[in-house]
Amino acid sequence: MSDGFPYPVDQPGNFSVDPNPTAAQLLPYGYAPGSYEMKCPVCWAPAYNVDKRASRCWQCAVNAFRADEAKKQAEQAGSDTSGPPRRMEDEFPDQAFDIGVEW
After folding, report:
1. Domain count of the fold of the chain
2. Residue 94 DSSP label
3. Tens of pLDDT along 55-65?
4. Is there a domain that residue 1 lies in?
5. Residue 46's domain spans which residues?
């Protein structure tokens, strides 16, 4: 009889993997644990238990880490967001987009 877990639980994306990055992963993003207090220059919230050389609070460092990971995954997937901006007229040619400005 199965225990209800037919997939490996230690793989990324499965429930047992901690979704938060480790302190070592957050070092390049400006967070280091310690015994100091500071005001985060990114979100202006008080940050406790940070190193005296930390430049961000834990949450801002996690946000920067996740944004960087998402950017890396998008680059690996081959998505290109550096092209020209798309126009609504091109996306929906059968719609009328009159904003009331006469040229």
Report:
1. 1
2. T
3. 999 999 999 99
4. no
5. 23-72
